[in-house]
Each structure stands twice: as C-alpha cells, then as structure tokens.
Design goal:
17 helices; Rossmann fold; 5 domains; alpha+beta; nine-stranded antiparallel sheet; 27% helix; 40 strands
Length: 668
C-alpha cells in the first residue's frame, strides 16, 4: 500500500480524498494555486506544494507541475479527483513514465471511454444500445450542417472530451446551429483543452440514469447500482439520488450487466460511471462513460456502505476487489443536493465573493438517518471566478426516499450562507414539488416546473402565518435584549409585555396578539382566528432560527432588515417587518421607491472573463442578436440585445476580467 499520495485537485473533492487517505493511514500532499494558498484542502493535507497562478491552465492543468510536486515530496501515487486532469490519458502515462501510480483507470481505458466518440463506437461494437447520431468528429460548420440535415432536429452537440455539461448545446433548428457549434467547441476547448465535438439525436423527455462500476487490475469488474441524475440545468446535475425511483430490479440488472460488459471490453480497473438515457417505454441508450470519480458518488457510498475512494486507492496499489457482485447490497435511499454559488433569480448567473456567513446544519446520524456534507470551504473563504461554482454537497440517507427528502429539506433550511448568491432556496423548492416527491422525473424537470425561471415564492396562507409568527417571536427577543442592554429594566422586574403588533409579510398585513408564557409564545391572528405556539432558544445574531411551531421542529434562515427580518424557508422568502399598530398604518401610506433608470448601457451581470465581442461601434443590433460572450466558472454565457439599438461605444475587450456592473458597451 502507498505511504504518501498527492491529490491533483482542489476544493471539496481534494478534502474528500484526504479524509479517506487519513483513515487508511496514508500521508497526503495538496497542491494549490496562488488563489488557494489558504484553502481548506491545503490546511487538511500533511504537505502542500504551490503549482502556479490562479488560472487553471497555468496551475491545475499543467502535468509537469504535478510531477514536480510528486518528486519534491516523495508522493508515490496521484489521485486526480474529478475535472482538471482526471480524464487525461496523457497525465496517467506521464505519471507511469516517472514511476508514479495513477489512482484511476489505465490510460488505454481513459482513451477508449474518455473520448465520447470512441466510447460510442466501443459501446456499439459491444452490442450496447446507443443514441442515433454521427460517430465521428465534426470538422467544421459545413460538415455539421450536412450531418444535422441527415439526423434531423432537435439534436445535441457534445464535446468529445470531458463532461459535466461543458461543451454541450441543444440545437432546435438550423438557425441555432452556427452559434451552438461555435459555443460548444469554444467551451470544450476552454474546459478540456480539446475543441472536438460530435452530434447525436436529441431524445425528448428522457431520464438520466448512471451506473457506478468498480474494477481492479486482475480483470474483476462489478457494478454498485444506479443513480438518478435527471434533475439538471444546462446539462449540469443539480440533485442526484440512489437508487432511482424509476428503475425496477429487472432494468437495474440489465443496465448493470451492460455497464460491466462495456467496462470489461476496455479492461477497466478503477471506479467509473456508465451513463444511460432511459426512455418512457423502458428502453435505455448508452450516453457516455466517465472514467473518474463522479461528483455524486456519496449517494452510492451511503446505500452500499462502500468507500469508493478507498477502493480506487487499493486498485491502484494492485489489490484485488474485496467484493463480488453477489456481495453488493443496497440499503435505504440517498439524496445529494449541489449547493452552488449562483443566483437563481438572475438566470443562475455565477456569483463570486467572500463567504461572510457559512454555517452548516448539524451533521447527524440517528434512527437510520444520516446527514453528510462534503465541502471545501469555510466561513471567510472566497469563491473565485477561476474555478467551478461548487460550495458544498448536502447528502442525506434514510430508510426510504420520503425520509431522505424530508431530511434534506430540513437541512437546507438550516444552512446559512451570506456573501455570495446561492441556490439553497431553489433546491428547497425542487424538493417541495409534488412531482419530485412522486418520482415523476425527466431531464426536462426544471424547464417544465420553472418555465419563467426561479425566484423564491412569497408565502401565502398558513406559510405566511408561520413567517409572521417567527418574525414576531424574533422581534420580541430583540426588543427585550435592547431594553436590558439600555438599562430600562431592573433585574428583578418582570418582563415587559408587547401584547399586540402588526406584521407585514411582503405586501400582506397581519394584526396579531402575543401571549407569552414561561414555555412558549402564543401568536393569535385576529383576521383568521388562527393561534400558533412558538418556542425557541434563538438569540439575536444567529443566522438561522431553530425552534418549534405548533410542536413541529423548524429551521428558518433570517437576515436582519429595517424593522424586521428577511426570512427563507422551504423555497419561500419574504421581507417580514414587525410594527406597532400605528406604525403599520403609517407604513402603508409611505410612497414606494422606484428603481432609478440607468444609462442605456450593457453592464456585466457577474464577475467574468470577456471571451469575445460580437459587435462593433456604430453597428445597429436587433432583439436577440449576440453582443458578447462572457465566461465564469468554466461556463460561457452569450449576452443578447433585447431591443433595437446602435452601439455607440465598447469599453471591454476580449481577455478583460470584469467585475459585476462594469460597463461593457453603450447604446443610443
């Protein structure tokens, strides 16, 4: 067994590998760019080596950097994590040439399966059902147009190397092909150093099912069941679970057998994933194979009890698999929510900045329930433009799917993040959808359920009363604290009473009466006659309110605003303000502030790199016309004109790094 390994990655996955290596008694070496000098993975590792400046092509993607770090520290093996160099056969070969083990599959398997075109050829030859398409590299737009005409629209353009949704575009018509081809190729080149793309037929409304496989260097290959990955946005997974609620035992066995057969044809000898598209008629088609550890591997670990990183390290060290297919069993259900630095209300634009608040829900194991959080950041860390938007993965495991969902919902409400925009409310909203709870899933789920995008819903009815009750209870605690600090109460005096108040939940007013006892606070709503009992040990300054409402445990994120709090819970959000009755009467008379009309300019919607400018000064643009292409966190975004206008001045140039609201161009 290895005595020391190097992790050629950063963030959450680097921390994840370090934890398993430590359990195995293996020393670890972290690598870091200048931007990651104080990162969590650097702190956790036994040693750390600087590998270059912040941009990944100058640090984490440089093979020579990793080899030098291994030689300097005496690391005997390298775990690549996911992304970066994890699916680069040249990296595995370069390590082997230096006598350093690669903790992943052999280079031949990476080449065969990591290249999506070659993988489809191999799958077709092995008798695995594949999606109709062109099994070859598309050289230019002219060839793409010819092939598209033969296959028919809609179709998918995909990167030949890599995955994770990068270099992938859905093309609905001939008019979209030119730009889609250019964007897919450019994004693939930026993310993987390989701009080749291929085309295949788009299958409407499928489910995305992937099978986890595990092999060793003695010819043994097994599968560990499937994961449901249909909840996606821009072809990037948002929520994953195992087992799939849509796969029965017969289909599981068929998919598993095909995945294992395909892996055997290329001599696969590590952890990997074979991905399928499952149609509504029960059929399924090979999509691709990821020759690495997947982001969503924890759900498989929780239902099988198998540490995949441990198995990868043992395989790389030449050990045989300790399990046969008959030894694999599945227990309960697991769910993973990807917590990302992005703004759902602004079309999920990436967000960067410092984590001013980062409080995790309590990690727990009870009554068959497990809450696991894999993260690579701490409070005070910075989310950077150079890398992906992952903040953390929240994973739950329970005896059944319903309990796993309920536990995840509670944990999301107890997660507090401030300083960067995030998708906590979006995740909570998805888990609350009836169709999700019923397992009615497809890759179109988000587009179908959120056709106008996402914004937290304002609470109504019972939920609004819950918001009002918690705001009133928090306000009462704050008023008592202020009076005590100011010396207005004597220590021996009984607490002052605030018998009545008005709470504005968004634009709705609720007149309430408070009755306080030693154990709880009773909140009476005059209009509805409803009465809610509230109990909590919350104190001002805590970003999450924990307590009970009508005996049910609840967690609510709250942030102070003028006269109250902005509350988030279960995908609902609202500014909730507490007034005395007369204050509420006057507040309703206050004029509403109107947003100031800005100059006729295009401002940068996110911190980003300007990839290209598509217009020139003096050019007249029409609605929908591309203005520029921006890149942040490995994803490209095309900014389009929303009206007829003439470009009067362009302030940004390709290669510029821009801050939020920086002016890109002006119009007349």
């Amino acid at each position: 067994m290895f005595k020391k390994i190097l992790i050629a990655n950063r963030g959450e996955i680097a921390c994840r590998v370090i934890k398993t290596a430590r359990k195995m008694g293996i020393a670890t070496v972290a690598v870091y760019s200048d931007a990651d000098r104080a990162a969590l993975h650097v702190e956790l590792a036994d040693e750390a080596v600087r590998i270059g400046p912040p941009p990944a092509p100058e640090s984490y993607l440089v093979v020579e950097n990793m080899i030098r770090a291994c030689k300097a520290t005496g690391a005997e093996a390298v775990h690549p994590g996911y992304g970066f160099l994890s699916e680069q056969a040249a990296f595995a070969r370069a390590l082997l040439a230096e006598g350093i083990a690669f903790i992943g599959p052999n280079a031949g398997a990476i080449e065969a399966m990591g290249d999506k075109i070659e993988a489809k050829r191999r799958a077709h030859e092995a008798g695995v059902a594949t999606v109709p398409g062109f099994l070859g590299t598309i050289e230019d737009l002219g060839e793409a147009e010819k092939i598209a005409a033969e296959i028919g629209y809609p179709l998918m353009i995909k990167a030949a190397a890599g995955g994770g949704g990068r270099g992938m575009r859905l093309i609905s018509s001939r008019e979209e092909l030119a730009e889609g081809f250019a964007r897919a190729s450019s994004e693939a080149k930026s993310a993987f150093g390989d701009g080749r793309v291929f085309i295949e037929k788009f299958i409407a409304g499928p489910r995305h099912i992937e099978v986890q496989i595990l092999g060793d260097r003695h010819g043994n290959v097994i599968h560990l069941g499937e994961r449901e990955c249909s909840i996606q946005r821009r072809h990037q997974k948002v929520i994953e679970e195992a087992p799939s609620p849509c796969v029965d035992a017969k289909q599981r066995a068929a998919m598993g057998a095909q995945a294992v057969a395909l892996a055997r044809t290329v001599g696969y000898d590590s952890a990997g994933t074979v991905e399928f598209l499952a149609a509504g008629d029960g059929g399924f088609y090979f999509l691709e194979m990821n020759t690495r550890l997947q982001v969503e591997h924890p759900v498989t670990e929780l239902i099988t009890g198998i540490d995949l990183v441990d198995e990868m390290i043992r395989s790389a060290a030449g050990e045989r698999l300790r399990l046969t297919q008959e030894d694999v069993s599945f227990h309960g259900a697991a769910l993973e929510c990807r917590i990302l630095a992005e703004d759902p209300a602004r079309n999920f634009l990436p967000s960067t900045g410092r984590l001013k608040t980062y409080r995790l829900p309590a990690i727990e194991r009870r009554d068959g329930f497990t809450l696991r959080i894999d993260s690579g950041v701490r409070e005070g860390d910075e989310i950077l433009i150079h890398y992906d938007s992952m903040i953390a993965k929240l994973v739950t495991h329970a005896p059944d799917r319903g309990a796993a969902i309920a536990g995840a919902s509670q944990a999301l409400d107890a997660f507090a993040i401030d300083g960067v925009a995030n998708n906590l409310a979006f995740l909570a909203s998805i888990l609350g959808r009836e169709c999700f709870r019923l397992g009615k899933l497809s890759t179109n789920f988000i587009a179908d359920e959120y056709p106008r995008g996402f914004a937290p819903a304002p609470p109504e009815g019972t939920m609004a009363e819950l918001f009002a009750s918690i705001a009133a209870a928090a306000d009462l605690v704050l008023k008592k604290r202020r009076r005590t600090i100011s010396g207005q109460w004597r220590a021996a005096a009984p607490p002052a009473q605030f018998p009545s108040c008005s709470v504005m939940v968004a634009e709705s007013r609720y007149d309430i009466i408070l009755e306080e006892t030693a154990e709880q606070l009773l909140v009476r709503f005059e209009a509805s006659g409803g009465v809610h009992s509230v109990a909590s040990q919350w104190v001002p300054g805590q970003p999450v309110w924990f307590g009970t409402v009508d005996g049910a445990a609840i967690a609510v994120q709250l942030r102070p605003v003028l006269n109250g709090y902005h509350l988030n819970h279960g995908g609902f959000a609202a500014a909730t303000r507490v007034f005395m009755r007369r204050e509420a009467d006057l507040a309703l008379l206050m004029p509403k502030k109107k947003a100031a009309l800005g100059a006729n300019v295009l401002r940068c919607p996110m911190p980003c790199l300007v990839r290209s400018i598509a217009v020139t000064e003096g050019q007249v643009v029409t609605p929908g016309e591309a203005l520029c292409v921006l890149e942040a966190m490995k994803m490209e975004t095309v900014i389009r004109a929303d009206s007829h206008a003439r470009v009067t001045e362009i302030y940004a140039r390709p290669g510029d790094f821009l801050a939020v609201d920086a002016v890109i161009m002006a119009f007349a």
